[in-house]
Amino acid sequence: MTAEPDLRIHFLDHLIPRATPGDYRVVVKNTLSDSDGELDAQDKLLPSEETFEIKAARFVLGEASVHAHYPPRESTGAYTRTLPHITLSRSILPWERNLAGTRAEQPSACPPWLALLVFGENELPDDPAASGDTVLRTVEELRNPAEVGVEGPNLPPGGVDEAEARSKCQTIDVPADLFNAVAPRGDEMYYLAHVRKVVDANKTRADGEVLEEGEYAVVNANRFPRDPGNYAVHLVSLEGFEGRLSGTLPGTTTAVRLCSLHSWSFTSSEGPAADPGALLENLVASGAEEPEELALRLPVTAPVTDDPEDDYVRGRLARGYTAVPQRTLSGERTFAWFRGPATPVTAFDVPTEHSPGPHTTSDHALVYEPEHGIFDVSYAVAWTLGRTIGLADPAYTTAVGRARRELANRATTLMALAEDPVRASVDPDAPPALGALRELASARFRELLSTGLKSPQLPDEAGRRTPRPRVTRAQSRSVLAEERAVSLLRTTAERNAGAIAAWQARLGLLQGVPFHHLVPDPRMLPLESLRMFRLDQGWLDALVAGAADVGVHTSVDSLLAPELNRATARSGRAKRAAGGLLIHSELIPAWPDIKISAYLEDGAVLTELRRAKPDKRILLVLWDGVPDKVVIREPGQGIHYGIDAGNRLGLRSLAADPPIGTPLETYYPATGSLFDLHLRSEDPDAGPAVLKMFGTGGLVPALAREFGLPDLDPGQLALELVNAPLEQEILSPTGTAARTETA
Length: 743
Fold this sequence. Notes:
Elements: E1 9-12, E2 22-28, E3 33-34, E4 37-38, E5 48-54, E6 66-70, E7 76-77, E8 82-83, E9 85-88, E10 114-120, E11 135-138, H1 139-143, E12 150-151, H2 162-166, E13 168-175, H3 176-182, E14 193-198, E15 203-204, E16 210-211, E17 214-220, E18 223-224, E19 229-237, E20 255-268, H4 276-283, H5 308-318, E21 322-327, E22 333-338, E23 342-343, E24 367-369, E25 374-376, H6 378-391, H7 394-417, H8 421-424, H9 434-441, H10 445-454, H11 460-463, H12 473-478, H13 483-508, H14 515-518, E26 529-535, H15 537-548, H16 555-571, E27 579-584, H17 587-590, E28 595-599, E29 608-615, E30 618-623, E31 629-633, E32 641-642, E33 649-652, E34 663-668, H18 674-677, E35 689-690, H19 699-706, H20 714-721, E36 726-731, E37 738-741
Parallel strand pairs: 7-20, 12-20
Antiparallel strand pairs: 1-14, 2-5, 3-4, 6-9, 8-32, 9-17, 10-19, 11-13, 13-20, 14-17, 15-16, 18-35, 19-20, 21-22, 23-26, 24-25, 26-27, 27-30, 28-31, 29-30, 31-36, 33-34, 36-37
Helix pairs in contact: 6-15, 7-13, 7-16, 13-15, 13-16
């Protein structure tokens, strides 16, 4: 089954402006001509001339020009394999100024004048904490630093006027060795910027970036924040540094002064969530060879014996039970079996005909094993829990109390009317005097009135009614079984049934149920584990029945309770949960919007009925069926750049077949780590982790060879560097667990 893509995006190499910043002159000349040529008219119009200037951002960049950046400002996360990037609202901005040093192999390439540099702690003298701090200086102080050995941009003569030289800009001084280590080379600049054209996406991502439709410029960094700590990211101008991006500055240079147009900081951490891929794979590792290890039950480590009592206990534990303390009515202290609604196996149907209810205690739900003298308190606990949750909710008790009171009043009225056959035919819901008005409006009323007035007057005794026979309680209650009474009671019950049914439906999805009733023993769900389960419908019925039995105080309430329950059942159309998943892992806080989908064997998608986080590291998901396949997927938080789990690149198609961007399910390098092959430092464990683009060990030619191409374009490289969300498949025991990475 192919899922719909979260986004539809095109990657473009660059966006070349039709005119670069500078002074321009437009001259308009008018001529008059006929078939013989131009005429020398006496009143010929004089030429018209206009001058204008095109300006573009140079030393200052407004905040409105920055659409988003990643990692988010002042965030903390596992960014060790991420290449920070900045998204600019003005898609033409990185190419509005010319920067010399175009690669000879790419005569049409247009390198950007902007670069994104990443610095760690204690690397910048003016920002040792890597907080993104800058120093405010004039443009003249940027161009011509007063400090010995500090080099500024070599801007062309006349390129900065006097007013601009006095203006202020944010600057940073980068030590020469550090600049040589992290600054992009001249032939790499072309590959560190591209245009992102978002076709159809208006979605807020977990990192706060809104991917709106339109064209945006993206500038990528070339350094991975591999070591834990704070990092500062600066969008700098490299205008005037042409010829000094070869990796070697003049020997007298001690530092380079750059104009910082935008900066922010973040923290790259290492810890349990630093390798989400390993965590995700570890969650299902125990079920790779034995799928039953992913079932929600207590682990049994004791050796197998021939003792039948051991077999009995093992059988109970295998069905998801745990032993709990119990005190019997006689005062004896013993233990009982308990299991919550989540069961590793299909539960038996629970017989309810012998105790239809309503009930005031949970004794009816106790299960006794005479062979072993042990109680199973699972359903009794469920009934008591449902009753407790219902009583604790004022809104629910008010709705149930109102429904029972209205039913009791209606039943009392019907039983009272049963003593008088004449009044019994009257609709109790009819407005007062409505019957008399109908009689007055009838066509025969005049005739009946005339006849009555003409009839002889009877003696007083003749008009008196005979005393009505006394009706017993049993006889009056028997009226409630008549068709007319049943219809009136049903109508009364349905007035309040909707609110009650909605509340009970939420309870049926375990809302309000304490987590220790779902997982009675912490050993069932240890840290970094995933457990699948079925839901015992009998347990859920007992839970809802406990809440449904709230407010039964009189014999009339008990008599009418089934009618209210039937009305509630008719009003409730919510789906019942049948299967679920529990995850206890550091992935849950790391991936707050984790995607989990469930499928049946025929590919049908199950409906997710509830998702909850009982704890910051625990996730509960309930579906309307028992899945044959579950897919856990890293949330698509937007377009991030870097390398994937295992320090490799998940390759994507660059051709038409399969469509461009389709994951090829192959990885580069096939073995080993990209950190070992394509970093500038000869020692991959020392120095800044800066990506090497060209030359021996260059990433661009290596990827081009993988695809059989002579070279790659910036858009193609950006497509390959997009982080692929991790994906984990969990199949039914008839299949095998498989882990993939896909877009």
